[in-house]
Design a protein that fits this description.
Elements: H1 5-21, E1 24-29, H2 35-48, E2 50-54, H3 57-64, E3 80-85, H4 91-102, E4 107-113, E5 116-119, H5 123-127, H6 132-163
Antiparallel strand pairs: 1-3, 1-4, 2-3, 4-5
Helix pairs in contact: 1-3, 2-4
């Protein structure tokens, strides 16, 4: 069903609202997926904090104009869905990557992060980024290591003095 002008404005405003707040974006070709498969993908997207929308390319170009995802505009060709990572930079990439393993019809075409657009082949690199909790955990382990080493060294010196 074709949208009238007011409907198109609403779609552009909605997508633009999410594009401004998103950490990264993925445009993927969904040609050949069934309605059931797309519904399953949308359900997983809601569960993982990903905004997923099938949008006409001209409306998507207008929605991302003026955002850091403007770099994707020239590569939006064909039937695409756009996934915006709302929680951490890799959540949309993980969603598309995992879903495409079981559904070979879903093909990532453009990956955008930090104002730069990359080919869909870079999806794996973005999907391997740690989540926020994993990043904090890694940072804390790096910060804790020198303190633990100092404590072990001081304990060793104390043990050597007590043994002598």
């Amino acid at each position: 069903m074709a949208l009238n002008l007011d409907g198109k404005k609403v779609v552009v405003e909605e997508v633009a609202k999410y594009a401004v707040k998103a950490h990264s974006a993925i445009a993927a070709e969904y040609r050949g997926l069934t309605v059931t498969e797309l519904t399953e993908l949308r359900k997983k997207a809601r569960e993982t904090g990903v905004y997923l929308r099938v949008v006409k390319n001209t409306l998507a170009r207008r929605a991302i104009a003026g955002t850091e995802f403007e770099c994707m505009q020239e590569k939006l060709v064909g039937p695409l869905l756009i996934a915006f990572s709302m929680e951490d930079p890799g959540c949309a990439a993980r969603l598309i990557s995992e879903f495409s393993k079981g559904h070979d019809k879903l093909i990532a075409k453009v990956v955008a992060i930090g104002g730069q657009a990359f080919d869909g082949a870079e999806l794996g690199r973005l999907a391997r980024l740690p989540t926020r909790d994993q990043g904090i955990s890694l940072l804390m382990s790096v910060m804790k290591a020198p303190v633990e080493k100092l404590a072990r060294t001081l304990a060793e010196i104390r043990d050597q003095k007590q043994a002598a």
